[in-house]
């Protein structure tokens, strides 16, 4: 895999400048008025109020009903002036089972949280993740293997950090790669091409200012041309049927963290554990909701040995017994990080903005060894 060039990129700034320039051109092109169209009318205009009207000016061609006018003036019919009644919106939330805290009841006045629809949204996401789940596709591949996939994902995590892309973009990139490999036999020389093209597509879907295609040509050290990336882009789009509705782990983790009222440290540790699973082939094929639940369970257990409450079980959709096998695999993966050749996630989460979470002593303590079965 080609090393990432060290030349600094000012990709997002360039995109912002182009966006502002295009916007200003569009505004200037719309500044003029089309007087020719404004003069076309088949309606006779009434004279403006305050202007002197000639006696022979025709204001209305319709006949005047004088009798009706006389009766109206005599009875002085007027509609009573009443203030319109203000109708308050009615919010109906589903009732939670007894003993389960309703985590959405305080969000009704915040329209951005969609408290009225959030439960339906997550029900839809759980159906979507099962519909788009991939199988054991490595048995279909003739030239690539699990190790090659891990090398590619580890490199893409470095690219995501270099380009300052969203976490959702990284997860969607991996999901696109797995779905494409599930349907196509890819030769070894095109595996990196599949990776950068998947990240280009995910960036277009998730980012406000997506990287340009030339940035991906540069990041691969000109191993692939723009024409090849565009050709692979069309191939991937047809393979995944233009469907980018994969729910990502972060969506479920945010919901679970809200249900558990966890702090920033526990939430960040869960994010670190989830991102480690992207490199592991077996864990990456599990449902995103299951990975999110297992990551939070392991996170709260390692930091302060918190329990998996009924509220967490209800909103995550998983009981403690259901996620323990995944927790065991995740704990075993964490213990191999120091000796692994894939260090992108650990390096990324050792930064200050991620609370240096990958350096926590609990990640090497006796409790995580217990969960790993050691």
| Individual helix count | 17
Global Rg: 30 Å
Low-pLDDT residue spans: 7-14, 19-73
Give the helix/strand class.
mainly alpha
Major sheet details = none
Describe what you observe in this structure.
With 374 residues, the chain is an all-alpha fold. It has helices spanning 11-29, 35-38, 66-75, 118-131, 146-163, 167-181, 191-206, 213-219, 226-239, 249-260, 264-277, 281-284, 288-304, 310-316, 320-335, 344-348, 366-372. It is globular, with a radius of gyration of 30 Å. Residues 7-14 and 19-73 have low confidence and may be disordered.
Break the fold down into its secondary structure elements and pairings.
Blueprint: H1 11-29, H2 35-38, H3 66-75, H4 118-131, H5 146-163, H6 167-181, H7 191-206, H8 213-219, H9 226-239, H10 249-260, H11 264-277, H12 281-284, H13 288-304, H14 310-316, H15 320-335, H16 344-348, H17 366-372
From the structure above, extract its key features.
about 55% helix; 17 helices; about 375 residues; about 0% strand
Quick rundown:
By secondary structure, the chain is an all-alpha fold. It is 53% helix and 0% strand.
